[in-house]
Design brief:
Elements (H helix, E strand, L loop, with lengths): L5 H8 L12 H7 L11 H28 L8 H15 L3 E3 L2 E3 L2 H11 L2 H18 L5 H24 L3 H4 L3 H31 L3 H9 L3 H21 L1 H56 L1 H20 L4 H13 L9 H5 L5 H7 L2 H10 L5 H8 L21 H16 L10 H10 L7 H12 L10 H10 L3 H8 L1
Antiparallel strand pairs: 1-2
This protein binds fe (ii) ion (FE2).
Length: about 500
């Protein structure tokens, strides 16, 4: 994972303070912008561009400081207890911030916004800069250049926000209605929030020749709802301050601190969920690989059996779907179809290829459901697949093998597999018999309905073959490959995780 850019993370994350909010942090910024490091050696044009940018930032900083000095009077530093409270909340809040993936959530931005509205330009800028300097003690910026950018941004946006609030008539001072105060604070909050983003991410984009609109869409738009919520919280705090004074800031601090622990629990739960999801995906990939290796190994030994298995898998999934079974059951029977003859691994070659088998050979062949179930059942999570494989040669009249189950005692998916297996053995070339026409095979399926096969499933299968047009090209290895590739192994992974 790319190294975080802690300083920028603070700055860009500042807009998302005080609530389970998301904001484009440095990891998002740098990763999304394709930046995994900031330590590259500048080329000629890039170096000159950076020099221009740094000079421009210096001008901006001077302008912001000048504006702050000129626009701040003695009253803007009062009441002192409010100034001290917001300062402490912003600085201490940095160390209570929660890292939620690419999001840094802490109370610094909301403290700065309150200072913009309730104090003045210079106090707001000092609070913002103090917060990031406090954080830099814990996590130093990766370069002086980017650290400087942070200082410029955190000086500029609070001054701009405070001046904007004054330009809008400073409704807090003039005793405007609660609606006017709230709406104005809310608007100023969102504007400065966006300005903060532009000052940080815009600089990185200009510096590295990246697209700012693209970064805006990817990094800022997704967090707008959170920023709106934080803006509303800020407006509410200002209104409460007008009524109860510093108690409102105290209540805000209590809420932020307590919500921090709640938020941490949520973040931890999300992290655990993500880790579990990653493990599940790895497990699914592993299971997919297991099935693929089994089928391909069988295919190296006996290509026709491998193709037959793939055909049965395809027919079985389609039949399960036609019978109205859920997707998980469809996947389960598909996997069982791919593996249903894997027990033949253990047989001598002639039992797979010869047309002249002895009674001993047939006895051996009749053991393949049990052997296959033993092999597949040994794989963690494949118990349900093994159960189907074990029963795929049972008959409705109880004359099948190995356990002579009858009727509904035979698992439904095994009955589906049996229909598909019987059809494919009749219609494809294998070592046991000469293929017959599809129409004749369907007639044979119907003839043995109720005795060998489940008649309801036979009709579902016939619909799949004649109406849905499901087919399998036994002479085409690409069809086998396609069947292995399309397999989705969620079922075994879920079983394993259960
Ligand atoms: Fe079989």
């Amino acid at each position: 994972m790319p190294r975080l850019w802690p300083t920028a993370r603070i700055l860009v994350a500042l807009p998302c303070d005080a609530a389970p909010l998301r904001s484009p942090g440095a990891r998002t910024t740098l990763a999304a912008l394709g930046e995994s490091t900031v330590a590259e050696v500048p080329s000629g044009s890039r170096a000159s561009r950076r020099a221009i940018l740094i000079a421009g930032e210096a001008v901006l900083l001077v302008a912001a400081v000048t504006a702050a000095v000129l626009a701040t009077d003695a009253n803007d530093w009062r009441p002192f207890d409010l100034l001290a409270s917001l300062f402490v909340l912003a600085v201490a809040g940095q160390f209570l911030a929660v890292q939620a993936g690419s999001v840094q959530i802490g109370p610094a931005f909301i403290s700065t916004a309150l200072a913009m509205v309730l104090l003045g330009p210079a106090p707001a800028a000092i609070i913002a800069v103090a917060a990031v300097l406090a954080w830099s003690v814990k996590s130093p910026p990766p370069s002086l250049e980017l650290g400087f950018n942070n200082i410029v941004a955190l000086t500029t946006y609070p001054v701009a926000g405070a001046l904007l609030f004054q330009a809008l008539g400073d409704p807090v001072e003039t005793g405007a209605s609660a609606g006017t105060v709230g709406a104005t604070v809310f608007a100023v909050y969102l504007i400065t929030n966006l300005l903060n983003f532009l000052l940080i991410v815009g600089y990185v984009c200009l510096r590295n020749g990246r697209s700012l609109p693209s970064a805006f869409v990817r990094l800022y738009l997704p967090v707008v709802p959170w920023e709106v919520a934080t803006g509303a919280l800020t407006a509410g705090t200002v209104l409460a301050y007008q009524e109860v004074g510093l108690v409102a800031v105290g209540l805000l601090a209590v809420m932020l601190v307590t919500s921090r622990y709640l938020l941490q629990a949520v973040v931890d739960a999300q992290r655990q969920r993500d880790e579990l999801r990653a493990q599940m995906e790895e497990l699914e990939a592993l299971h997919h690989g297991v099935v693929r290796v089994m089928v391909e190994t069988l295919g190296m030994r006996d290509r026709m059996t491998a193709r037959h298995s793939a055909a049965v898998a395809r027919f079985a999934r389609a039949t399960a779907a036609a019978a109205g079974l859920p997707a998980r059951e469809q996947e389960l029977v598909h996997t069982a179809g791919l593996l249903h003859d894997v027990g033949k691994f253990t047989f001598p070659d002639h039992t797979l290829t010869s047309r002249h088998l002895t009674p001993e050979d047939w006895e051996l062949i009749r053991s393949h459901p049990q052997r296959g179930a033993d092999i597949v059942g040994a794989v963690h999570g494949y118990g349900p697949v093994a159960d189907i494989i074990l029963c795929h040669h049972e008959r409705m009249d109880g004359a099948g093998y190995p356990r002579s189950l009858a009727g509904d005692d035979i698992p439904l998916l095994a009955r589906i597999l049996s229909v598909c297996d019987t059809f494919d053995v009749m219609t494809s070339r294998d070592s046991y018999r000469t293929p017959i026409a599809v129409e004749d095979a369907i007639a044979e399926l119907r003839r043995v309905s109720g005795t060998q096969l489940d008649g309801r499933l036979v009709e579902a299968f016939v619909g799949v073959i004649t109406e849905a047009g499901v087919d399998f090209s036994h002479g085409d290895d690409r069809d086998l490959e396609r069947e292995l590739r399309v397999r989705r192994p969620q079922m075994p992974a879920r079983e394993a995780a259960a």
